[in-house]
Structure formats: structure tokens, C-alpha cells
């Protein structure tokens, strides 16, 4: 092209250079679509779309994506202006690499009656990002409004409810009138969230960015559910603004989760045959009590119980009957001791009872009573009456004992002594049994 003015020629050079290097596709075209000039990036975007790679006419090249582009241009009657702005063109059925554009954006400007300028760019990634953002937004929206076991609200600096999502009614049973401007202590059973405790929790959340607590919560009708409460400041943590701005509170009903955790705990800590605590649960509890005793001594005793001649019961009535006797013994021990006492099966026909707060006399008295009870009754198993007895050894914590094993060994030595002296009796540990390794009599 020959230009009259040399300065203009330089500008034209610069413009051409710019068009070639531009990071978007640029095309100059006539009103009938004929391409006057195209930069390499635009050619790269258009070639896979155009039939036979023909890049002489933009309308033809984009016919599959915007069939009415010629029509839009023809209908644009103003002398110049934007014919279409960032129109998204989904590209389908393009074979080839995974990187092939899937979404193009087209902007078409009418420069004058003779010329138009089109800008074409690959916006695949941008659109994907927007979709991901929209999905995130939808997810948060679902969380905020849709899930049945969550409710979300904002609190002011004093912990009073300011706004809430609709599920507050579903989770807590409270309606708008009963929550607005009320302290969030309203969601806790009476007396369990004092103003001081609430202030502590708010301060904790402001300081560390969040505060989580789990426990009983209360519905509007007074019924309880197991809930977890997550409190977080609306502002960045550890600033004065955090405390001034207020908080978000998410309450979640986790009753189901708690039930399954409880069921799991029961299955791990219970004896499968008798349902009482198992060996592991016993040692956990006993270890705790002994540690507590070492810090602050108070009575703590232990009774070790062993069914007498149990082998004979199995041999005479069968293993299943033996099992029934073990269940009977476990139930008898549970009934004889207090709720706080831990009744556990150590294995086989051997049981143990941990008695916090009971001294040696008290523990021995309870053991004697249960021993008499067992001996006085028969167990009915499939029509047969089975009589059995137990032997028990009793020991108590005292200075010089600093672990569970020693306590158990003392009770064990006393129990062996009971077997040795005729069974169906209770023996308390004393120093005469120190170091005793009494073999069980045949
Ligand atoms: N039915 C049943 N029997 C069990 C179970 N665990 C252990 N046993 C039996 O309990 C019996 C224990 O026998 P021994 O240790 O000889 O003691 P014992 O016969 O009770 O005699 P003493 O303890 O000396 O009075 C064995 O025959 C075991 O097979 C169980 O879970 N169910």
C-alpha cells in the first residue's frame, strides 16, 4: 500500500506491527465479510473452524458458530459502533488436542461504512474459571440454605443474633421473632451458656479465628439434640475490628454422627459375650483412676472375680450353657455394684470390678454380698438349672502402689487365696499375701 505522507507510513508500519504481535486475534474486514487483514493469532484460531481452511471471508469462517453474523452487520445501521461485544461462541466437535479452544469471544466494531474490525480470543480457561466460581458459589449457597442439618447466622459483638438463613427454623425450631437480637445462648440448654462463658467463647474466636464446641443444644420446644457450634469473627482475627464487627455462627445437628461414634465406641470397649466393659476399657478406666489417686488420693478398690470350676460347667452342660452362665454372672455383678463402678470381663471366666470411692471394707462387703447371691441362685439354661459359685479377691490403693498392674496383682493373689481355701468366698489382700504366687488348686 502506497501512502502519500511519510509520517503516516511510519504510523501504518507501527500499527501493522502491533496487529501482528497483538495477544488477541484481529481481523479487518469489509461489510460483506471479506477479510482485508488478519493477524497470525486470529488465523490460528480461525483455520480449524473454516471449511477447507479458507480465510478469505470472516462470515464464512464463522458460519458454524454465528450463522447470522452477516445479518447482524447488515442490520447495524449506525455509521460506526459496536456490532457485538464479547459474544461467547462455544466451539463444538473440534478434533485434535485437549488444548483446542472450546470457547471463543468475538467483538465486532464498525469503523466506518467500508471497514469493520473483529477481535477474537480464546476464553476457554476464563470461562472454566467462571464456571468453577459459579459452582463454588452454588455450593456455598446450598450450604447456607439447603442442608437440613446446618444453620448459619451472624451475631453482633455481644453474641446477639443479627441475621440467619432459613434453616435456623429447621435446625433449632426457632423462628425469626424469637431469635432476632437474642443472645445465641438461647440455642443452649438453660444454664449451660452463661454470659461469662459466652464472652469467653467470643474472645476465643476473636483471638484465634474460630472456636468450636460440641454438646447438648436445645430446640425451641425444649427437646435436646447433640450439636456442634462453630463461631468465627466476621473480620480478620486478633484485631479490635474482629471483636467489633461481630461473628458468624454455624450450628450443626450431629446427633446421627454422635450415635454412630457411640456405637463404635461401644463395639470397641465392650465384651461381645456379656456386654460389660472389656479388658481394654477396664485398663483405660483403671489407669485414669490410679493417676487421679496419685495426684489426689481417695479410696479406690478393686475386686477380681473368677467363676469356680467353670470347666466342669462347660463339660457337663456344653459351651453354650457356659456362655449363658457367664452372661448371668456379668448381669449379677452389674446389678450388685454401683453405676460408677466399672464391671469388666478380663477374659474367660474372670471378671473385675473397679470401685472408685470405695475402701477395702466397703469393696469386701459388696463382694461378699454378690458371692452369696450367686451361690444362692441357679441359672436356668434351656430347661436345666445350673448352680455355680465364684471366688473373689479384693485389694485397695495405698501408698507404695503406683500402677494398675500392682493393684490387679494384689487382687489376683487374694483371689487365688480364696480358691485355695475352698472357693465360693472372698479374700482381701493383706501383707501375708505379698509376693504370693498361689497356684490354683486342681
Ligand atoms: N463357655 C465358655 N467357656 C469359656 C470361655 N472362656 C473360657 N472358658 C472356659 O473356662 C474354663 C476355665 O477353666 P479353668 O481355668 O481350668 O478354671 P475352672 O474350671 O473355672 O477352675 P477354677 O478357676 O480353679 O475354679 C475352660 O474350660 C475354658 O474353656 C467362654 O467364653 N465361654
Automatic annotation (TrEMBL):
The keyword Transferase applies. It catalyses: 2 GTP = 3',3'-c-di-GMP + 2 diphosphate. This is diguanylate cyclase. One of its GO terms (molecular function) is diguanylate cyclase activity. PROSITE patterns: GGDEF, PAS. The lineage of its organism: Bacteria, Pseudomonadati, Pseudomonadota, Betaproteobacteria, Burkholderiales. Its EC number is 2.7.7.65. Residues 298-431 form the GGDEF domain. It comes from Aquincola tertiaricarbonis. Residues 152-206 form the PAS domain. NCBIfam families: GGDEF, sensory_box. InterPro entries: Diguanylate_Cyclase (IPR050469), GGDEF_dom (IPR000160), Nucleotide_cyclase (IPR029787), PAS (IPR000014), PAS-like_dom_sf (IPR035965), PAS_4 (IPR013656), Rev_trsase/Diguanyl_cyclase (IPR043128). SMART domains: GGDEF (SM00267). It holds the Pfam family PAS_4. The keyword Cytoplasm does not apply. Keywords: Nucleotidyltransferase, Transferase. It comes from the Bacteria.
